[in-house]
């Protein structure tokens, strides 16, 4: 090799790139805000709430991912959330308590937990940092937690420009 030849170290580095966007679950996300079901957006009246549950066409949530929350400071009894979950269960693809961000993190997490860490044993991993799909920070943390025990290294970013996150010590 001559002194003037440029070597592409990225292509020879044997890096395995993991794109968190590959774990995205397709489907419509819906926020069900209990606030709108309260008297003056403050008080839950059991009789009215049960009427709402009974008279709502829950099939509108068929195959949708539903986050249930209350966006004000009203105190909602746990049984109210349980009634909503019970009504949604035959239709919704997934139901979570929390925000749309919580729902997204849950959906990603369910996919990430299917990773077989042994498939990455002694590999140098780059967890891709940019993409078209917004990825919750928790996804990067979870990937690190799952992979760290088995990999040689974890980096964040793109193969040409990475930030080191973890490197196995040479014991």
Provide keyphrases for this structure.
21% strand, single chain, alpha/beta, 3-stranded parallel sheet, 2 domains
Protein described:
With 171 residues, the chain is of the alpha/beta class. The protein folds into 2 domains: 1-25 and 118-171, no CATH class; 29-92, no CATH class. Helices cover 26% and strands 21% of the residues. Strands 1-5-6-7 form a 4-stranded mixed sheet, covered by helices on one side. Strands 2-3-4 form a 3-stranded parallel sheet, with helices on both faces. β6 and β7 (161-167) form a beta hairpin. Mean pLDDT is 92; it is low at 6-12.
* Total domains: 2
Low-confidence stretches: 6-12
Give a quick account of the main beta sheet: strands, pairing sense, barrel closure.
Answer: 4 strands, mixed
- Structural class, by secondary structure, is alpha/beta
Strand content: 15-25%
Concise summary:
By secondary structure, the chain is of the alpha/beta class.
Outline the fold blueprint.
Layout: E1 15-18, E2 29-33, H1 46-55, E3 65-69, H2 78-88, E4 94-97, H3 100-112, E5 124-128, H4 137-147, E6 153-158, E7 161-167
Parallel strand pairs: 1-5, 2-3, 3-4, 5-6
Antiparallel strand pairs: 6-7
């Amino acid at each position: 090799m001559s002194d003037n030849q440029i070597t592409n170290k990225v292509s020879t580095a044997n890096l395995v790139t993991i794109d968190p966007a590959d774990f995205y679950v397709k489907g419509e996300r819906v926020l069900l805000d209990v606030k709108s079901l309260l008297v003056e957006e403050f008080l839950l009246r059991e009789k009215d709430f049960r009427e709402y549950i009974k008279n709502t066409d829950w099939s509108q949530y068929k195959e949708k991912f539903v986050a249930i929350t209350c966006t004000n400071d009203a105190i909602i009894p746990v049984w109210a959330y349980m009634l909503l979950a019970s009504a949604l269960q035959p239709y919704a693809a997934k139901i979570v308590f929390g925000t749309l961000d919580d729902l997204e993190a849950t959906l990603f997490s369910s996919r990430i937990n299917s990773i077989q860490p042994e498939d990455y044993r002694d590999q140098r991993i780059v967890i891709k940092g940019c993409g078209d799909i917004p990825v919750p920070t928790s996804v990067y943390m979870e990937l690190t937690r799952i992979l760290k025990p088995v990999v040689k290294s974890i980096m964040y970013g793109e193969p040409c420009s990475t930030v080191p996150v973890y490197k196995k010590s040479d014991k």
